[in-house]
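Give me the 3D structure for UTP--glucose-1-phosphate uridylyltransferase.
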Amino acid sequence: MTLTVADLTRRAMTEFEEKLRQQHEDSMHRELEALLTTTNKAEAEISRKDFDGFKKLFHRFLQVKGPSVDWAKISRPPEELIQPYDRIKARGLPDNIAVSLNKLAVVKLNGGLGTSMGCKGPKSLISVRNENTFLDLTVKQIEHLNKTFNADVPLVLMNSFNTDEDTKKILQKYKHHQVKIHTFNQSRYPRINKESLLPIAKSMGTSGENAEAWYPPGHGDIYASFQNSGLLDKLIAEGKEYIFVSNIDNLGATVDLFILNHLMSQPADKRCEFIMEVTDKTRADVKGGTLIQYEDRLRLLEIAQVPKAHVDEFKSVTKFKIFNTNNLWISLPAIKRLQEKNSMDLEIIVNPKTLDGGLNVIQLETAVGAAIKSFNNAMGVNVPRSRFLPVKTSSDLLLVMSNLYTLDAGSLTMSKKREFPTTPHVKLGSSFTKVQEFLARFENIPDMLELDHLTVSGDVTFGKNVSLKVVCFV
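Predicted structure for UTP--glucose-1-phosphate uridylyltransferase (474 residues):
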């Protein structure tokens, strides 16, 4: 066979790229080994497990070429794979639902800080309603379940190195509550220089010159860090079969008995290993990940994976009608099986950052929902919007602090006095960004039962007994 000049050039380029990849990988391994020598033996052992995961991610990052999806292969999931919640609810509950509850653990993703809302420490410790923090509300919800059904549903917190210490101090206050609380830490990965593709860390320390050198690698890390912690095996040994995973700042993510019953009532050979709760997309959710059918599997498609030419199509509310709430129900034995076979295939999210000093770095991350394609009999459940109530900003905080919601046993529900099923659209200006500034601008929280839309910009304060309808303050 005669090779053309183009063939030879292509082959030479491929060989060159492969050598370059190998050099990057070798250099990275040397740097990581050097970092491990800067700490004590016990810490090095934990970090080595973290680095094993990072090396796999870095290896895949070096191999990736172009978009991770072929747009032409994308189709809408078959109807039977996205079940309407009402259909699941209509099946009712058995008398012995407590048996199913005893096979469940609740996992809250608790790795984030409250910095975006102007608070120090874990976001879960911000007060959101009647002096209750996100963590207080979570504990109350699960304790209420355990007392009502005489069940034993434990709470598991996935902390990060940013939140672990402060969270553990607070946990003392719950020791007399009827809920067992476990914690484990997600991995700590090194930020890498965008140019050299080497870690910027000088040692394993997390302060001083290393303060910005590390990051928690996204919630897709839950599978590996859960297994590494020993907690996965412990819960399986205690008879737990499923975990309900959600973000701790999503106040709508409570244990739903109808979804749990649906999981537990399937025949053993057709047992659903993964449920993703999705809800109808609005204009506010156009960037949210959606479920697609791809190569005969249900798959999560994130905006970062979409080729630029198709971003507007992805944002369309008519073509992609649902988005991922990140409320997930996952089989524990299935996680164990996939981890042991090393067959959990999560797309890499390359997250570029510019540090305070101007250095450009990248973080390699993964998303927990991306694993849906690896599980058997996975499905989506289209749930009411009420199960997606995240508090990301002070605008969200105003909604959950108001009389739009009533609080019962740690759970927020829309007030029966509100005539519309939807929440108002609230947009507060930059003067309200930090929680302390936000609170100082309200003598008390206004009546918002009839509010449809609120926009506030500039130096605005609210007095007592204010009732808001359709308002714009500039």
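The CA atoms of residues 109 and 247 lie 5 Å apart. Let me know if you want a second pass.
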